[in-house]
Amino acid sequence: MSTPIISIKNLHAEVAGHKILKGFNLEINEGEIHAIMGPNGTGKSTLASVISGNDEYEVTEGEVIFNGKNILELSPDERAAEGVFLAFQYPVEIPGVSNTNFMKAAVNNIREYHGKDPLKAKDFLKLMKEKQALVELEGRLTNRSVNEGFSGGEKKRNEIFQMAMLDPKFAILDETDSGLDIDALKIVANGVNTLHTKENSFLVITHYQRLLDHIIPDFVHVMYDGKIVRTGPKELALELEEKGYDWLKGETV
Amino acid sequence: MSVVAPIKHSEFMNSILNTSRPVKGFDTLCMEGLKDLQITPFPSLRGEYWKYTRVSGLLKKEFKSAKAEINTLSESTLELIENHPRIVFVNGYINPALSILPTDNNISIACLSSDKVTENNLSDFPTSWENELEAFTLLNQSSFTDGAFIEVAKNAKIESPVYIIHMTTGENVSVAHRNYIKVNEGAEATFINLFEGDNEVSFSNHFNSILVGENANFNWFDYHQDGEKAQSITTTIAHQNANSNVNIGAYIFGGKMVRKNMYVTVLGENCETTANGTYILNNKQIADYRVIVDHKAAHCNSNQTFKGVMSDKATGVFNGKIYVRKDSQIINAFQTNRNILLSDDANAYSRPQLEIYADDVKCSHGSTIGQLDDDALFYMMARGIRKTEAEKLLVSAFTADAVANVNIASFKDVVLEAVADKSAKL
């Protein structure tokens, strides 16, 4: 029997008094890839933010059980250390902080959280090198500030690189495909597929079927007005591509 | 014999003047200082240059000049200064046992208290900026107890930095010394001032007068790790001659109140001037900079970069001015002051000012007061970086360009580490 890695129950969340998530339910088992699609403004990115702990959003009801723990009580860094990863839709530029120092802090803070010693400098650099190769960013990160002056494609590949470095149990890809050309899309998808094992799970938020040609989901969910209105196999994505979302909007009530 | 202060002065002034041992050979300077002090009001918030830092509290206390003996420097200081030459002042008096003079014959150092130097040797040095009367500068002039006269020989390149240690120890001590530095034509030298002391209440009031010759290269850094009740004022006036490079910086982490007056007058053409500062403050700390770069000659560049981070009820003040005098054409002068406030009760006052009388110049000035970037903080935390660690990285990144001018790698590391250490306490 498969074990759920994350279980989201009746999640309600709002930002500045606007109710966005309205009773969201989802369970993802170890090793599964789920995709969420849906029109703009239905709460997909809010869901990603709430799971990763962005305090701009207020959870008013419900729970998120990750690996047996209610992670809504944890700070974002603790959630990351527990194994939650969010690949940002808009990766943040941090001038003056080098990718190396940024990743070193991340890797070692997480190790410390688990009572492990920091990685030796040599091992850390080796890991950096190995994971950069995965997304074809060899040598392009080391001395640059985090995301500063990166092209859109480089930023998204950097997200996947960071994911590879941190080796999370559960990763959310929030529109990682937006703004990518087809080559970059393949590099990103290839990175995800390489990292995907029987133990870790992915939640892929996307508008387009094309990403799902490369990252094959076990389930596709349609989100509308703050909750899931339809769940199906990967073929559902094709149907959505063809018909749009309007035919599902009636199913909310 | 002690100097008798005019009745007019407060007990604060009298106490300092009466307990300070006057330095032999500087009687005229001292008397002139006293005379001017009589007509100079004590700074108040009503004035232009002490608008944000209240010093009237000093008047309620009696500080006394007091010599003190210490046997060793702290371990961290020794580690910092490595094997470099050092001049150690304790409470404003030279400590010969702890000082190690440079072996290089191209740099000569004499104490003002020795009979090698009198005011007659120092008549070329500025004692004020544009004859402006400043109470604390005049108080130093009338009450300094020692200091150094340092001269770097023509065309000499002094590789090793010279450390000047300003140590304060004991309760309610008043500390004042006065340094004269002459970097002759074509010479190159770096001086690093370390300010430190115990956690007793103290009042320091230092003065540095600097002459930089043509084609000379002069670096001067102040590093403040003063005790938590130390109140420290330093006035540094430099005159810069043609084709020279003056690079000064003041990095403030310690002290209760630290005031830096940094005045550079550019007298010759083709000069480069850099004045930088970083201040990372918590509790009720105050750092207050008054910075003047006065362009009196054409074809020069100057840059001021000051970055501050304040938490709790700390206050940072930047009062900067660039003067470009008539006929000082083709000047590039820039001035930036940026601040980050980490709490609701922290304060930043920023006044970057330009006063330009020439018409062919490129000048800019700007200031910002803001918070740490929340998006960056969340992004870092979402990668597992603890909040304190993330803040530390962001503060270090924010202040980096204000420290970039430090030309001594080992000292630069110390300042960067101090930025990281202090930001972890915010």
Please supply descriptive tags for the structure shown above.
heterodimer; A: 253 residues; alpha/beta; six-stranded mixed sheet; four-stranded antiparallel sheet; 9 helices; 12 strands; globular; B: 426 residues; ten-stranded mixed sheet; 7 helices; 20 strands; 18% helix
User: Assembly type of the shown chains?
Assistant: heterodimer
Spatial order of strands in the largest sheet of chain B = 2-1-5-8-10-12-14-16-18-20
Strand content of chain A: 25-35%
Strand fraction of chain B: 35-45%
Pair of chains with the largest interface and how many residues each contributes: A-B, 32 and 21 residues
Give the number of DSSP strands of chain A. 12
The largest sheet of chain A is: 6 strands, mixed
Q: Helix coverage percent of residues of chain B?
A: 10-25%
Largest sheet of chain B: 10 strands, mixed
Overall, the morphology of chain A is globular
Q: Provide mean pLDDT of chain B, rounded.
A: 95
* Contiguous uncertain segments of 5+ residues of chain A: none
Distance between the termini of chain A: 33 Å
- Number of beta-strand segments of chain B: 20
Low-confidence stretches of chain B: none
Count of separate DSSP helical elements of chain A: 9
Note the overall shape of chain B. Answer: globular
Tell me the distance between the termini of chain B: 48 Å
The helix content of chain A, as a percent range, equals: 25-40%
Short structural description:
With 253 residues, chain A is an alpha/beta fold. Helix content of chain A is 37%, strand content 29%.
Account of the 3D structure:
The complex is a heterodimer of chains A (253) and B (426). Chain A is α/β, with parallel strands linked by helices. Chain A contains nine helices and twelve strands. Chain A has a six-stranded mixed sheet, with helices on both faces. Chain A has a four-stranded antiparallel sheet with strand order 2-1-4-5, covered by helices on one side. A two-stranded antiparallel sheet of chain A has the order 7-8. The longest helix of chain A has 15 residues. The model of chain A has no long low-confidence stretch (mean pLDDT 93). Chain B has 426 residues and is an alpha/beta fold. In chain B, 18% of the residues lie in helices and 38% in strands. The longest helix of chain B has 17 residues. Chain B is globular and about 65 Å long. The mean pLDDT of chain B is 95. Chains A and B meet through helix 2, strand 7 and helix 3 of A and helix 5 and helix 6 of B.
